[in-house]
Structure formats: structure tokens, C-alpha cells
Amino acid sequence: MESTLLKVPARNEKEAKQASSEACNELYFEMENLCIYNTDFLHTECVGENSIDLVITSPPYNVDIRYNSFDDKIPYDAYLDFTREWLTKTYSLVKDDGRLCLNIPLDKNKGGQQSVYADFVSIAANRVKLPFHHCVE
Ligand SMILES: C[S@@+](CC[C@H](N)C(=O)[O-])C[C@H]1O[C@@H](n2cnc3c(N)ncnc32)[C@H](O)[C@@H]1O
User: Fold this and answer.
1) For residue 1, what pLDDT band results from cuts at 50, 70 and 90?
2) Which residue is closest in CA terms to ligand 1's atom 4?
3) Atom 2 (ligand 1): residue with closest C-alpha?
4) Which phi-psi region, left, alpha or beta, contains residue 121 (left: φ > 0; alpha: ψ -120 to 50)?
């Protein structure tokens, strides 16, 4: 199972304790108003829908980086399917007025030239219905 640290600020101590005790054995660390989960983002149920103000992430770029268990060299179509899957999950977790800050390359050459940024924006806007705001270079 691939894992990463999801840093989720709980709104208060009660919420933090509730999150740690409810059906979630993926809690890695908790302190007052902070819970850190070490888990597979695609499959975790530790984070409630419509509960997140801000997601900041740097997803895999599919450029053959040697991660422990994530295959970073898959066909580009499969990579875009994976992208749609985690963007859809992200959209379900963020609040209606929440935000996603995404760190991705504009394009890539390794493993074949692809316009990564354009493809992400297209998936976000057309498939996941995530409204796009702007790009910071
Ligand atoms: C481009 S790297 C991010 C690197 C990070 N910005 C850093 O500076 O360390 C992408 C990360 O996503 C992780 N990852 C891939 N699939 C995942 C999943 N389903 N759940 C959680 N993390 C995942 C990979 O293991 C990798 O660490």
C-alpha cells in the first residue's frame, strides 16, 4: 500500500479525539488540533466528506521515480485515470468553498512528451467539475 502523510487540522480537541477513535487505525500522530494520517489517500476513510478547507499536494509525475511501492512509470492513459480518481476523491473531501493547491509540471519529456498541466486542468474542469482559478509559475 502506498502511503503519505495527510495533515488534517481538527477543528477542536473533541473532533481530533473523535477522529482518532472512529474506525481509523491509520492515525500516525495527533496533538491538540492536529491529526496526521499515514495512509493510502485513494482508500482511506479517515477524512470525512466535505470537511477540508485546503488540500496541498504534489502528486506523482509519472517520470519513473523509484518510490517504495507506487509505480511511477505507467501508460499515460492510466496515469490520467489515476489523476481523475484522486482528483474526484479530493473534490468529495473539500468543502464547497475549499481549495486545492497542486504542484505539477507544465509538461514532461521523460517517458514521452505530454502536456501534463493542460491535461490536469481539463480533467479537473471537465470530468471532476473542480472550478479552476489560476496557475502560479
Ligand atoms: C511527487 S511525490 C511528492 C513528493 C513530495 N512533494 C516531497 O517533496 O517529498 C508523490 C508522492 O505521492 C505518493 N503517493 C502515490 N500514490 C499515493 C496514494 N494513493 N496515497 C498516498 N500517497 C501516494 C508517492 O509515494 C510519492 O511520495
Assistant:
1) very low
2) 58
3) 60
4) alpha
- Between the CA of 61 and the centroid of ligand 1 the distance, in Å, is 9
- Whether 8 and 37 have beta carbons less than 8 Å apart is answered as yes
**Cβ atoms of residues 46 and 26 within 8 Å:** yes
Task: Give the C-alpha separation, 8 to 47, whole Å.
Answer: 8
Cell of 20: 482518532
pTM for the whole structure = 0.83
Q: C-alpha grid cell for residue 51?
A: 470537511
C-beta of 40 in contact with ligand 1 (< 6 A): yes
Whether 41 is in the pocket of ligand 1, judged by its Cβ within 6 Å, is yes
C-alpha cell at 135: 496557475
